[in-house]
Amino acid sequence: MTDPNERPDDPHAPREIAPTRPVSARVGDHDGRDGDGVHHGGEGAETATPATTDAAEAKPDHVPAHRQKSLLWWALLLVPAVVAAGLVVGQLSGSGESDPWFASLVKPDIYPPGWLFGVVWTILYALMGFALALVVASDRRAYKGSAVAVFLIQLAVNLAWSPIFFGAHLIGLAFFWILLMLVLIITTMAIFAKVSRLAAALLVPYLAWVSFAAILNLQIWQLN
């Protein structure tokens, strides 16, 4: 006798129904366990991830205050130091309209009033000192050492220009020296930007003024 279950062509023959698994066993119970009782995450794991992320993001809350305090101390130290270095070297070199040799030189038409140089350089040195403070106070250590080193090199070149121009009266050498200064300023800005974009931006007026000073230096050299 033939088994009716083996006659798929008979529409009235009973069919064997495949065993089914409970829904909770297939998609996981509400407590995050599958049919074998193994925990696979579920809603409990999904709610734990944001909590962990929030806890991780909550740690840097105290960093800004610490950075502000560190920046303040470095600014109080470096801004006066850089300004004083520039002004002292300028005074020792005899720079300015008070120098009889410089007063006798023929100046180009774009030459600004003499008093403006002291004001501008004081502001620029202050900006340079604060830019250096931003870099030193930053927690980005990858380029900090290189940034500080390049800054000090360009500052030394900057301070050496006055003795070359006003002290030694070497106008031509001073022009090429100021071109070297421009290259170092651009290099300093590029490295500063990797540590602090604000520090790099603070050097933009410095770059603009030295570029103008290079034009003055060239024209004075041509006229004398």
Write the layout of secondary structure elements.
Elements: H1 23-27, H2 42-58, H3 63-93, H4 100-103, H5 114-137, H6 144-167, H7 171-195, H8 197-202, H9 204-223
If you had to describe this structure to a student in words, what would you say it looks like?
Residues 22-63 have low confidence and may be disordered. It contains nine helices and no strands. With 224 residues, it is mainly α. The chain is elongated, with a radius of gyration of 36 Å.
From the spread of the alpha carbons, the general shape counts as: elongated
- One letter per element, helices H and strands E, the order comes to HHHHHHHHH
Instruction: Please identify the structural class as seen in this structure.
Output: mainly alpha
What Rg, in angstroms, do the CA atoms define?
36 Å
Into which percentage range does the β-strand content fall?
under 5%
Calculate the terminal CA-CA distance, rounded to whole Å.
Answer: 127 Å
Features:
mainly alpha, 9 helices, 224 residues
Q: How would you summarize what this structure contains?
A:
The protein is an all-alpha fold. It has 9 helices and no strands.
